[in-house]
Design a protein that fits this description.
The protein is of the alpha/beta class. It has helices spanning 15-26, 41-57, 65-69, 95-106, 124-128, 162-173, 191-207, 213-222, 224-227, 233-240, 242-252, 264-271, 288-311, and strands spanning 7-11, 30-34, 72-75, 86-89, 114-117, 137-142, 152-156, 180-182. Helix 5 (124-128) links the parallel strand 5 (114-117) and strand 6 (137-142).
Length: 320
Amino acid sequence: MMTNKELIGTVGLGLMGCSIATCLLASGHEVITLVQDIQQAGEARKRIESFLWQMHDERLATALPKQLLAKFKITDDIKDLAACELVMESITENMEAKKLLFQQLEEVLSPVSIIGSNTSAIPVTVLQDGLRYPERLLGIHWGEPAHVLRFLEVICGRQSALVYAEKIMTLATGWGKEPSLVKKDVRGFIANRLMYAMMREAFFLVENGYATYEDIDRACRNDLGYWITFAGPFRFMDITGIPAYFAVMQDLFPELDNTTTPPGFIGELVAKGAKGTSNAKGFYSYTSESAQRWEQLFNEFALDIRKLSLKYPQNCGDLT
């Protein structure tokens, strides 16, 4: 049984990888991270230290960053992960790159060590193909910023053993998460399927002249954004009345967009180099200063929402 004192391995130190390592360190684990280029180590360590200070200042971590970083090692030798009971990758979202990494991990890990993939859309079943021990491969899907959000999805592929998923579900509560279990592999899992269904309808409304970006964002902020931290869709329907939703579904479902290809204008944006606030080019207009400000405010907002979600946990109405 793993505890929050066990050595955990991670692979990759991009923004998400740094955030995951931060969460694990703050939870009391020793962490060793595999990178392709050891020259990344210095910059990544600085980023993780800044995240740990953020958690310390918000009282999400009690130990000082210096103490936590003493349990952190960065390596470019995969053999250094051999003693890990759990290894999680957050490398590029490329199926072949991930499968190659998993095959390499199988050469050094115990047959019962869990391998987790932070894929956001690649089916776990596909990633299991060709492994000697496919039953121990799981999807472990984090949200961004991983060290702040309570979100975590644990996904079983067709060959995954449920016992491994249950271990991660238990362990994740010690990471400050409120995890969801996806028992059957489905592309996009839970959160992404719901989010992209909403995005598809938003694009439909813009393309057909019903509303602007601003109006759609405003509506989401002031309706969906008002209740969704407190309750998911099923609890919300319970609270506000199931029959009314059933009546609307009968009329509205046939009208919803079911396009199977992305809209042309987002493809045009991508072709022009738009990445969003990361390069100050997106659906909205930004200066470099305003883009940076939006990212800063988003991080601050994530911390505020975490506090609110802790005040009202998912089953808060059942507590006595």
